[in-house]
Amino acid sequence: MTKPIIALDFNTFDEVQKFLGQFDESLYVKVGMELYMLEGRNVIKEIRAMGHDLFLDLKLHDIPNTVARTMAGLGKLDVQMVNVHARGGSEMMRRANLAFKEHNPDGICIAVTELTSTNENMVKNELRSEISLEESVLNLAALTKQAGLDGVVSSPLESPLIHKKIGENFVTVTPGIRMSENRNDDQVRIVTPEHARELGSNYIVVGRPITQSHNPVEAYHHIKSLWEGHNE
Ligand SMILES: O=c1ccn([C@@H]2O[C@H](COP(=O)(O)O)[C@@H](O)[C@H]2O)c(=O)[nH]1
């Protein structure tokens, strides 16, 4: 069972150090655009030097050449996972994956399908999609697979369909994790940790329910035990 990935959505490395300093075990953490843009590559090196596994969640989305060259640079960072937006298209994804793996052959490269903050109404009326949200997730997941990537970011709600249609070994990395006592915040397609396990997600990503908790270590262990099925 993979560890829950903790989203380190902080502004400064100081805050990250204070947060991680509360734990006496190695974690799987996620650095997103907020921390990376404000603190840069050094924060990645520091967190890796502390012994934590790292998902660098920059959701790259640009023309193929720009993304491939950026991915080559990210490949030189010793991280476990990176991602792009599937809407960048198959050529962008194919080149991103190859460029990353040239430097980091064991790393996982995935693509974001529909964000977990997206709902059916947005897909239909804002993005003017002719297909449903679920069909769009599946379409983007199929494109991601064809481009040679390892898996996708989706809501856990879509994990069963992705595994059934695309393949059991195709990885689903799933944010949008909330327990009944948590606020939804800006998340829409939410699921509890135990439901995510039942739905077959390979990884869960959890931010505010842990980082904003009055006791982050306790919150992490509670979520981890629900995810691993120890509380039943
Ligand atoms: O579809 C997506 C893709 C990425 N995320 C990221 O996951 C975390 C979730 O944080 P919470 O505080 O648990 O909501 C955050 O870093 C997002 O950028 C996502 O939520 N949905």
Automatic annotation (TrEMBL):
Reactions catalysed, as given in the entry: orotidine 5'-phosphate + H(+) = UMP + CO2
Q: Name one GO molecular function term.
A: orotidine-5'-phosphate decarboxylase activity
**GO CC entries:** cytosol
Q: Which residues bind substrate?
A: 9, 30, 57-66, 116, 178, 187, 207-208
Instruction: Give the record's pathway.
Output: Pyrimidine metabolism; UMP biosynthesis via de novo pathway; UMP from orotate: step 2/2
Gene Ontology BP terms: 'de novo' pyrimidine nucleobase biosynthetic process; 'de novo' UMP biosynthetic process
Catalytic residue list: 57 (for ompdecase activity), 59 (for ompdecase activity), 59 (proton donor), 62 (for ompdecase activity)
Q: Name the EC number(s).
A: 4.1.1.23
Q: Which UniProt keywords apply?
A: Decarboxylase, Lyase, Pyrimidine biosynthesis
Q: Which residues form the Orotidine 5'-phosphate decarboxylase domain?
A: 3-223
- UniProt xrefs under NCBIfam families: PRK00230.1, pyrF
Describe the task this protein carries out: Catalyzes the decarboxylation of orotidine 5'-monophosphate (OMP) to uridine 5'-monophosphate (UMP).
What family does the database annotate?
Belongs to the OMP decarboxylase family. Type 1 subfamily.
Oligomeric state and interaction partners are given as: Homodimer.
- Protein name (record): Orotidine 5'-phosphate decarboxylase
- Give the source lineage, highest ranks first: Bacteria, Bacillati, Bacillota, Bacilli, Bacillales
